């Protein structure tokens, strides 16, 4: 086992949230997560700064998630509701809101979705820019557009 693998395991909750942000189908989430973990395993020797492990593994997850979405766009399928969202604790109204929000986030264009998901994970604009190879201003524009599109979807729902 690679010496950094225990640290990778500590990132599993973030990796799962990332994978769920790109795929609604639980079976395909499992498959994508396996691809992500395999890619991380194969890439660990390329990690130069161990304190940068979380951004390193999340970048791999986001890159594979983006590739997954691009492939799905080429062969569109109807996506079922995320089982994890259906099992969230709370009132029925809260559950419905959460399911709606997850669907709305998944409908965002990929560049906007990536920025929004990373922002929800707690990364600042500079860190998001480093992960995605973007300038801070571009990250800000994408974050604003993502929030604006979500707001428009919400307004259209009312």
Set down the secondary structure blueprint.
Layout (H helix, E strand, L loop, with lengths): L4 H6 L1 H11 L3 H18 L9 H22 L8 H4 L5 H16 L2 H11 L4 H8 L3 H22 L1
Helix content: over 70%
> Mind telling me the C-alpha Rg?
16 Å
> What is the CATH architecture assignment of the largest domain?
Orthogonal Bundle
Main β-sheet description: none
The number of helical elements comes to 9
Distance N to C terminus: 52 Å
Low-confidence parts, pLDDT < 50 over ≥5 residues? 76-81
Oligomer category? single chain
Descriptors:
single chain, 158 residues, mainly alpha, Rna Polymerase Sigma Factor, Chain: A, Arc Repressor Mutant, subunit A, 2 domains, 9 helices, 75% helix, globular, RNA_pol_sigma70_r4_t2, DNA-binding
Task: Describe what you observe in this structure.
By secondary structure, this protein is mostly helical. The chain has two domains: 82 residues, Rna Polymerase Sigma Factor, Chain: A; 69 residues, Winged helix-like DNA-binding domain superfamily/Winged helix DNA-binding domain (Arc Repressor Mutant, subunit A), CATH 1.10.10.10. The longest helix has 22 residues. The protein is globular and about 50 Å long. Belongs to the sigma-70 factor family. ECF subfamily.
Question: What is the compact description of this entry?
Answer:
The chain has 158 residues and is mainly α. It is 75% helix and 0% strand. Residues 8-73 form the RNA polymerase sigma-70 region domain.
């Amino acid at each position: 086992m690679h010496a950094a693998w225990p640290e990778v395991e500590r990132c599993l909750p973030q990796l799962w949230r990332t994978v769920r942000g790109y795929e609604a189908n639980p079976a395909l989430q499992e498959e994508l997560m396996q691809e992500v973990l395999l890619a991380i395993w194969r890439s660990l020797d390329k990690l130069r700064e161990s304190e940068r492990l979380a951004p390193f593994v999340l970048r791999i997850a986001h890159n594979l998630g983006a590739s997954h979405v691009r492939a799905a766009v080429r062969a569109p399928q109807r996506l079922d509701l995320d089982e994890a969202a259906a099992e969230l604790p709370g009132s029925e109204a809260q559950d419905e809101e959460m399911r709606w929000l997850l669907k709305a986030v998944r409908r965002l264009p990929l560049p906007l979705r990536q920025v929004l998901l990373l922002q929800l994970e707690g990364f600042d604009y500079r860190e998001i820019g480093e992960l995605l190879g973007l300038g801070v201003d571009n990250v800000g524009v994408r974050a604003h557009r993502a929030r604006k599109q979500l707001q428009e979807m919400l307004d259209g729902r009312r």
